[in-house]
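Apologies for my clumsy wording, but could you write out the amino acids of a protein and the tokens describing how it folds?
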Amino acid sequence: MGTIHKERQIYALLDGRLSDGKLEKLERHLEQCEDCRRFMDEVRALRTDLRDIGSAQPEGVNWQGAWNLIEAGVERQRARAGRPAREAASPFWKFAFAGAVVILVAAVYVAVDKNLRDGRETGGPHGGTQVQPAAPKGEIAAPVTAFATFTTRNATWTLPGVGAKDLDIDTVLREGASITTAGASAVGIQAGSRTGIRLEAFSSVSITRLTGEEVALRLEHGTVSVDVTPGEKTARVSVTTDEARVLARGTLFSVSKSSDATSVVVGKGEVLVTPTAKAQDAVSVKRAEGVRVSTAGAVAPIGETAAAETQRLETALFNMFGDRVPEEALTVDVEGDGGFGFIGIDGKQEASSHLVLRRPAGDGEARVVMKDGSEFPLVFTLAQGKSAGVTCDLKTLAKFQPAETVKPKKTTGAPEEKVLEEEESTETEEAAGFIDPFLVKVKIMKAKGTMRSCYEKYLDGNPEEKKIKARIVFTVGEDGKVTTSTCSCNVQDEALATCLSESVKAVTFPKPEGGAAQFEYPVSFNPN
């Protein structure tokens, strides 16, 4: 180990005796001095291990009796030699005491190792973990666990001495764990109650420090995004690579590691970037800014790349929770190759077509967004303590292509452009109420299977027909039920039109505001 410059201040910090003014100075020194950081980590780890003795004593060891024997032996030796109580013991007792310490340390190692193997976290189905809070000021920070908040595909994790395991939504991680992702995959991890970690595809990161007060990561390659929620329990977060160390608290940022450089982009807040080769050239990076640090320690700003990465960070899925982590999990699968873009949920985006995420019980909605901008809503319900899944088959949706927007049907004022024949709108009653068109679209999608059956029955009697276009005009009453529904098609078939209009009548919509509401809904069908 190199030179330790701030040994007394480090001990005072760990004892909770350091004033705020000195604490700020020490933090600035630790950001620059690797030797002092390593010394503090080793002292803290040793204290944590010793603290664990009381709660993790191996069976068959009488700790109090062992200490009593050692103390009694030392006192007898002092009495025989006529030495005062504080005089040094003879070499024999020095060696005897050293041997006892060795035995004690070995026992500590066995106890701590057993605790790590047995695990300290509690969890239910899908890891219903209770987040461990940060230690109060003045206490040594206790180790905490991290857990997966969402997974996609092809991610693994390891611990020292443990082989690689698949990472899934039930995975609980500890200090020392390494996570690796392959192509087309991403992983969300929550450490404590306020730190979210997102590992992108083709990336590898290790958790080198994990307490309620500090989260330290080592990025080997790829990209890691970090979302640190400000608050009283906010941990100090750092990401280290070969080229730089990034220190943050209460911010949103990403770090990317290539073969010869590290790039840092900040979406919110501010981070401190310290080059490994030139610690004196540390720079502060603020929102919408980015820097690139070379192996030689050169720091250069990045422009357009930073703007694009900032935009990605604002919509990237982290799926974080507070002190209560839900046991329920939702699986979203998108099947078929039809120009898939991303899955949207809670205003965030995930580009993988397979997504498993923790989710509180209740009703919810997700979106499948295509590359051309079109969307398909997915409605789901999670029961308490249960998991559920929804599937979007792009091949099927291509045959049932809904309108880009469900349009409210107006009967007063200037006429709107019509999809089909003009006379269709004159047969409907006036309706001035309002329902959010997106909610109408979500509800009417439940009738997709019935509508498809109507088309398949039509094909049975008309095998030569290829494509059908139809427009359904329907009125939703004040109670949310459909009062009238009419359908016009590009083919003259009364049975098909009746079947399609009746399929919409079976749907119950949200209650409209201001009275009944009227909508038109174009659909089209193609044969297999």
In short: The chain has four domains: 7-117, 146-315, 329-399, 407-525. The mean pLDDT is 76.
